[in-house]
Write a structure and sequence with these properties.
Elements: E1 2-6, H1 11-21, E2 29-34, E3 47-51, H2 59-63, E4 68-73, H3 79-84, H4 86-105, E5 112-118, H5 141-158, E6 163-169, E7 171-172, H6 185-195, E8 200-202, E9 209-213, H7 215-224, E10 236-238, E11 242-245, H8 246-257, H9 259-263, E12 265-267, H10 271-278, H11 287-291, H12 300-315
Parallel strand pairs: 1-2, 1-4, 2-3, 4-5, 5-6, 6-10, 7-9, 8-12
Antiparallel strand pairs: 9-11
Helix pairs in contact: 1-7, 4-5, 6-8, 8-12
């Protein structure tokens, strides 16, 4: 049994790979595919890394074989980048997904295809609490690309070509590392940087409500996706999260990190970022995902404390 992770060099890809290697899931090879790879991820003989551009002709057809059982498709152009580069966004975020699905279809075994979608598939006037069945009305190219992939995966699953599962991820906080070009990167930055003695700029108003999850919880839920029984009528699931405003996040930062940490956050409004992030739901119905066995964080202060504990452990 082979498991493939596209975008394997990314934050989620590396964390998921580590979780898989330490799980009870039986497989003979874990193949990470990305444009580049860290020098060393693990000494496990089951781990293999492939540096490749999957948009190049012939790459995907050679990647998916009769040994492939699970594909985690995490590779993507992030939100603000996809908005800025329209052609690249559609090429990577939609066309690549379609090519992967088609390669899976050509195999005799039915491959479990786990796709990381986004809250950006929603937009416009939304109910106070979004459900898995709420209509998709994206307000960005990135959201439209993710929504189009969801429809493809549902249809390929309906036809019996794959066993598809779409996970709409909450905004992940607190991510380690540095900010990227995702519109939501500030969500981690306004907590991470102050706790590490650095300043951070918040581009949105304190009243903006977010739907978030910790890295550890998202990885736990991605791991479960390899074996969970997928819903038959619709393959898209909103992963559980907690609802919190930016102001509440900053108040919790003060409570956990002290006034000095809170003082390192300033506000510099960015209308484009606020417009994009504000179009995403601030609350979704957790119950369907919880009924399938997915889990949710208990509170935001616990997320911050876990980040601090992980940092201390990494420094040892």
């Amino acid at each position: 049994m082979q498991i493939i992770i596209t975008g394997g060099c990314g934050f989620l890809g590396q964390k998921l790979a580590s979780a898989l290697l330490h799980s009870s899931l039986s497989f003979h090879q874990l193949l990470l595919v990305d444009l580049n790879m860290p020098a060393r991820l693990s000494d496990s003989p089951r781990l293999h890394c492939l540096v490749a551009d999957l948009t190049q002709p012939g790459m995907i057809e050679a990647l998916i074989t009769d040994k492939t059982a699970v594909v985690y498709h995490l590779a993507a152009i992030v939100s603000s980048h996809a908005e800025e580069d329209f052609d690249l966004g559609w090429k990577v975020n939609l066309e690549l997904c379609r090519q992967l699905l088609e390669a899976c279809r050509q195999q005799t075994q039915k491959i479990r295809f786990v796709f990381s979608s986004s809250l950006a598939v929603y937009g416009g006037t939304l109910p106070e609490c979004v459900t898995d069945a709420t209509a998709l009305t994206p307000c960005s190219s990135y959201g439209a690309q993710k929504a189009a992939c969801e429809l493809l995966i549902n249809d390929y699953s309906r036809k019996g070509f794959i066993e598809g599962l779409v996970l709409r991820l909450p905004t992940i906080c607190v991510r380690p590392g540095k900010s990227n070009r995702a519109a939501s990167s500030f969500v981690s930055a306004i907590i991470r940087e102050p706790l590490q003695g650095e300043t951070a700029s918040c581009p949105v108003t304190d009243s903006l409500r977010l739907w978030i999850s910790s890295p550890a919880t998202v990885i736990h839920n991605l791991l479960l996706a390899a074996t969970v029984c997928a819903p038959g009528d619709g393959r898209s699931i909103n992963l559980p999260g907690i609802s919190i405003t930016v102001g509440e996040m900053l108040t919790t930062l003060r409570e956990v990190g002290g006034e000095e940490a809170r003082s390192r956050v300033t506000h510099q409004h960015d209308g484009a970022i606020e417009k994009m992030v504000a179009s995403w739901p601030g609350r979704t119905d957790n119950e369907p995902a919880l009924a399938l066995g997915f889990v949710v964080d208990k509170a935001f202060d616990a997320i911050i404390r876990q980040f601090l504990a992980d940092n201390r452990e990494a420094a040892l």
